[in-house]
Amino acid sequence: MQTRFPEWIRRSWASGNDFSFTRGLVEDLSLHTVCQSARCPNMAECWQRRTATLMVLGNTCTRNCRYCSVPSGKPEPPDPEEPLRVAAAVRDMNLKHCVITSVTRDDLPDGGAQHIADTVRSIRSLCPETTIELLVPDFEGDEHAIEIVLTSQPEVFSHNIETVERLYPAVRSRRYTYRMALGVLRQGSVHRPKPIIKSAFMAGHGETKDEVRQTLCDLLEAGCEAVSIGQYLRPTPKQREVAEYVTPEVFQEFEALAIELGFQFAVAGPFVRSSYRSEELMQTRFARERMDVVTG
Amino acid sequence: MTYEVKLPSLGQDAADTATISYWLVEEGDKVKEGEDLVEMTTDKAAFIVPSPKGGVLIEKLVQEGDEISVGDVVCVLEV
Question: What is the pTM of this model?
Fold first, then answer.
């Protein structure tokens, strides 16, 4: 077990009243969060801010990526009441912007697309002012499934590229491919009305700066407009080791590079995650102007 | 009055054990509520535990290198 981390890999282990509120809400509504399943180091901060990233379609993923601590195996059938409970949680947390993600469900004919779309509609019904970011799996590239999700009209359509192309076989489940991930983003970028297209990846797996640049270029080419880059942190000893702790200065370089290359929004840092402080994207001029176009 | 500082839970599937890496406050020192008390590491990151109350740290119950679990008493404060 590693006993010392670089000084910038340090968070607060705090749990005040607001943390307890979030935990109570998640438990009472029998919801899953990626915060818990991925053992996110930002969890204390986010839950104290009464936010959480809710994960639908259960807590069991049908893929087994080498960096991820979400349990893998044979999942339970989707719970038809879950979309309503998620909507109730969004309402009770009083979220102006929510991020909904999902485990990968290769066992379902549509990959769970309809369930995800139902969740968006339930949130719309209960919280019409709340903007929604969907962080979706790749649906094995099934365009029909992706279309089902897109027609629910999330404000942000997100799919994580996760790592650079060379490291895909070492990092991800063999069923994921880099090109398939780009295809998911590309389909989102040509959909009308067009949501904001967002992706994320983790540094620290052994990628080079040139590979980071190439990944950013590939994402842009796929129509991606927003990107977040964080540090891979090994959730438990079962997962892949960290190859490198990227310094905050290099993360600043990545952020500047992303903007220079043409991203409308970029955030990079050791504790940046795809949904970490995602509401900041919605506060940008870019997002506000886009929403004006979408909503008329 | 004494107050036992326990390692709080971060939620069901989140980290529930940690190793004390170093104390930021010595026995006999005053601490304010929210002030950094002790650093610990999980497999994933280093975490600082803030003091839940203001007072004087009168006894450390775990030492650097000890592995502790959620709910374990870390130290005692005179509040």
Answer: 0.90
